[in-house]
Task: structure prediction
Amino acid sequence: MCRVESDRDKIDEILYRRHTGSQGGVGQSNWDDRMKSTFVNRTGKGGKLNVADEIESRLKLVGLMPSRGRIPRSNLNRLLSAEAFRHRVGITIAKGRFEFTRKEDAVLKALARIADDLARRRKTLDDVWDVDRKLEYLDELEAEGILPTAADALQLPKREKPKPAKSDPEPEFFPNPKPIVVKASRLQKRLTLIPHHDYGVAWTGRLQRHKDIWNELQYKLRLEEHPNAIAVLCRVLLELSVDNYIKQAKLAAVVENDPLAKKLVASAENLHTQGKINKRYLEVVRKARTMDAIISVDTLNKYVHSPNLAPASDHLMALWDTFADLVVHCLNE
Result:
């Protein structure tokens, strides 16, 4: 039996109920974790926090609610359905609670503009329907100077200098103290190169192959069983991600045929200029040019071309953990 529905919000509601479960699972068509995550990231439905509610309550507190119309919460949730979009406006819910990642006044002004655009229908469902259109709208706001910038970064609290220790009194003597038993927590073994975390990548249509490789490295290929395939795909993903950044950011300092190490550093330097990575991480990426180091582009190249160097799981994990932030930033450009 087929049902024809033209209202996109109703379509999403039907899909949500059908695949994420209601009535104790009766009538539910099962999706795996990735399918559910993709749906939630596209629509904003099913999250633990209602982002639109959180935003509206904060705008009310400071008197920045739209003067006309009501905020269409479903559209606001859809726009800010993934961490990649939330970070651009200066908020996060990564820790299960609503937090500002930029100065509160700058963030609230940006959110007030977004709320006003949606309430007055200057922007409608069509403008926030998919990743490409969300990015297009956020890019418009950035070009107008509406979104928070690196200058609005939150200041880390200064560490207090430790006070000089006072001389301790003579300890009392307790005969035969009972030993303290500390139970070691069981660490979960990492099975794949990319851990099963939400990295907040906004997967656009042009990143289809990047996403396929990412999914293979995150869900399908096991470190113990496929180290060679993982090593090659890790290098491919790194270069494709950097090439995406170079193209989208229109970097003139490098071209497509330049060595990967040069493109890697050029991308990192531009990200640092934009305030997206800090100086310390930039230096880490610069060290990737060092020949014969384990955490280097040279190692990745040898994994592909050398008949003698076999990739080891711990080295592969160290490589990914080093370059993961850079890859995510490059994909989100």
